[in-house]
Design brief:
This protein has helices spanning 2-28, 58-76, 82-106, 116-134, 162-183, 189-210, 227-248, 257-274, 281-284, 286-304, 315-321, 326-354, and strands at 149-151, 155-159. It has 355 residues and is mainly alpha-helical.
């Protein structure tokens, strides 16, 4: 437990101190994200007041997570686990894709960033390599970070061929990262929601460690490899996003950009895979699922019914177009996220009680 607490504290302090330095550097060089404006064919919420706000704040988040994890292990002189390192690899790899996207937005003034195909290819390369590597590195009792079984709260009887499982993980990673990316449209919305998801994975990691098959073998134990180290990663991520809210909450002084949203989505998806809670992620990341479904529904409605389901997708922009104040949307969406995360944790605990 000491590692978990220290990891969270280090990431909070790192981001609280580092983000203002990043803001000053970006402002000094005039590095701000281009703001989308309405056109006759495509109305867009009025965000002119956000013009000039620096982006790429995800650099501070990713830096806080990596430093907190590394320093924590140095303090206690404990070796890192393959499971945790793979989660960090996934987050850093997808964060690198986000850096390329933010570069085009900031330096080339292209509001849409990377082309969708290019971004998906970059995400696929990182996700597929993560999925393959997660099936390697068995520990002393033969546990690998992931198995080819689809998991809910633990592995289910549905075991996939390796190739199909790698594609399943790719789909999960792509859906999660794009869900976070779509949610990152209002000040603090995605950051606050991600903090709740990471906090849930701290609790899951600590609980799985206490009920590990290594300590308490039995029908209700968890065969998760290195659950405590996963809790350390989750704590560092929760601390980093929580601290970033100080500067990202409305009115935001900095945006995290795709650097942050893709990295956060990657870490969340990685935690789901290696903690064997892949399907439970639908609740632990419930707001991201809801926002993604709103985009899918909008596209499907327009294509097949030739009318728009929402005034504008994603869902939070629909309420903006209806005249809701931004802060009201953010807080109410946080409430929704808090509810579904609590529901997910309740189901997780109820499954253990039943077992």
């Amino acid at each position: 437990m000491k590692l978990v607490v220290i990891s969270a504290l280090i990431s909070v302090l790192t981001v609280l101190v580092g983000t203002p330095l990043l803001i000053r550097m970006l402002l000094k060089h005039g590095y701000s994200q281009a703001i989308r404006v309405s056109s006759e064919d495509e109305p867009y919420p009025e965000h002119e007041g956000k013009r000039g706000t620096p982006s790429m704040g995800g650099v501070a988040i990713v830096g806080g997570v990596v430093l907190a994890y590394a320093i924590t292990h140095l303090i206690f002189w404990t070796p890192p686990s393959p499971s945790a390192l793979l989660v960090l690899y996934l987050g850093l790899g997808l964060g690198a894709v986000g850096v390329a996207d933010d570069y085009l937005k900031i330096f080339k003034r292209r509001a849409t960033g990377l082309r969708a195909r290019t971004k998906l290819i970059g995400q696929a390369l990182v996700a597929l390599s993560f999925a393959f590597l997660a099936l390697q590195f068995p520990n002393s009792v033969g546990e690998t970070p992931a198995t080819t079984a689809v998991s809910f709260i633990r592995d289910t009887p549905l075991v996939l061929p390796t190739a199909l499982y790698v594609l399943w993980v790719w789909l999960l990673v792509t859906a999660t990262t794009n869900g976070v990316n779509l949610t990152d449209g209002l000040d603090g919305l995605a950051t606050g929601a991600a903090t709740m998801t990471f906090a849930a994975y701290v609790l899951i990691g600590v609980w799985q460690y206490g009920q590990s098959c290594f300590f308490t073998p039995g029908s209700a134990c968890y065969p998760t490899a290195s659950p405590l180290d996963l809790a350390v990663v989750a704590a560092a991520s929760a601390g980093a996003t929580f601290a970033f809210l100080w500067y990202n909450a409305a009115p935001a002084r900095i945006f995290m950009g795709d650097t942050g949203s893709l990295a956060i989505g990657g870490i969340i998806a990685g935690l789901a895979v290696v903690s064997r809670t892949e399907l439970l992620l639908a609740l632990l990341g419930g707001l991201f699922v809801l926002v993604s479904l709103s985009v899918i529904g909008q596209v499907a409605s327009y294509k097949f019914l030739h009318r728009r389901l929402l005034l504008m997708a994603p869902l939070h922009h629909h309420f903006e177009m209806k005249g809701w104040p931004e802060i009201n949307i953010v807080v109410r969406f946080w409430i929704i996220q808090g509810f579904v995360v609590a529901l997910g944790l309740t189901i997780f605990y109820a499954e253990w009680v039943r077992s």
